[in-house]
Amino acid sequence: MSKVRTVFYCSNCGAQAAKWIGKCPSCNEWNTYVEEVVEREKSTTPWKKKEKHEAAKPKTIQDIKPIPDERIITPDNELNRVLGGGIVPGSVILVGGEPGIGKSTLLLQLALKMEGVKVLYLSGEESDHQIRMRAERIGTKNKECYILPETSTALIFRHIQELQPEVVIVDSIQTMQTELVESTAGSISQIRESASEFQRYAKESGVPVFLIGHITKEGIIAGPKILEHMVDTVLQFEGDRHYSYRILRTVKNRFGSTSELGIYEMQGSGLSEVSNPSEILLTQRDEMLSGIAIAATMEGMRPLLVETQALVTQAVYGTPQRTTTGFDLQRMRMLLAVLEKRCGFFFGVKDVFLNIAGGIRVEDPAIDLAVVASILSSYEDKSLAPNICFCGEVGLSGEIRAVNRIEQRISESAKLGFKKIFVSGYNKKGLNSHKLGIEVVLVNKVEDLIRRIL
Ligand code: TYD
Ligand code: MG
Q1: Is 136 in the same domain as 270?
Q2: pTM over 0.90
């Protein structure tokens, strides 16, 4: 008879210990250890009949046969893009995101649209009737999309063995339960053990597996963080629930770049791909208001024009407020300090609010210049000209630094009808100005910018 064994896990990073610890030695968080009952039997591979185990031998790199890169190209171009050009056979892809953001919709839609590919969609959260209703909204093209509302991995692998699917989708990994571990579904040991079963299955059978994982609002990542190192690709699905735009971001990818981004719009009939995001993210208006500036940013390989909105008002409470949405708060504080120290503005008695329109989050440092321009515009209560845009990183001494892919940014701005773009003087070398169809203004310091726009 097997012995009941308990193990303590850190609920933040998944570290394991034999006894309870107050402070996690691996992630330094306090009070995160939880006890879980783990009863281990001999590890089995339930989707396969017993085979003789072939031990791996060391080989020289030349002896390893290359396998051709045969990716499965999905009908979803945005998904292909973030995966680095389609699904790699045998890969495990974790799709994380807050509840209600649209993870189930995204993957059910994928299953329903992959014509002629046998897809098994495992749902531990919804009944088959609910999924049917959802499928009706999305529309079905794939006649070989199988739905299985089941949470026990032992039963699931029995079905998988019978069905032999070509793609498996697990919705969600937090609801899966393996018999090898005794704790309840959703606990760290369960998540880890069931994920590793799916991972072994993917590696041995060559079938790609999508795992959906929930992330809670507070950023407590029950599961996904622990799984990050086990899977090949981590995609994060994000967006503001009050807006219809959703962004699929690559966080980790063993088979492609991590700077890719897919943009979708949630509609009544599921998620639709957005192929011209800049046009949607810019609000159409006849007159410019103060505090608004347009930034020419890059998201992955794609240029994206976004609107930054700032509001600078007299502080009513003792401590002035600083709030941002879609932009790093610390970075805004730094930019305010630069404006104070180098240009003589005084924000000590001002509340500053900053918002990136459309509910998206921008990490490209080239947005700095537009952030500075919008803050100054609101500070002075003067609107900027409607057909200008900005791109440049601001350094601590107030210098405007060069950014990458400047030509692409400029040509996207020209394409969208902007007449003037402010870029760093250090970008001059890479520019071939007469072909651009837009006036390029070179600025080296924040002071230069202020003189030109206000
Ligand atoms: P869902 O995929 O269930 O989110 P998750 O699996 O990440 O928890 O998506 C839920 C939201 O999407 C829900 O609020 C309804 C909305 N939705 C649409 O707007 N249109 C649709 O066609 C579908 C299927 C859902
Ligand atoms: Mg769901």
Answers
A1: yes
A2: no
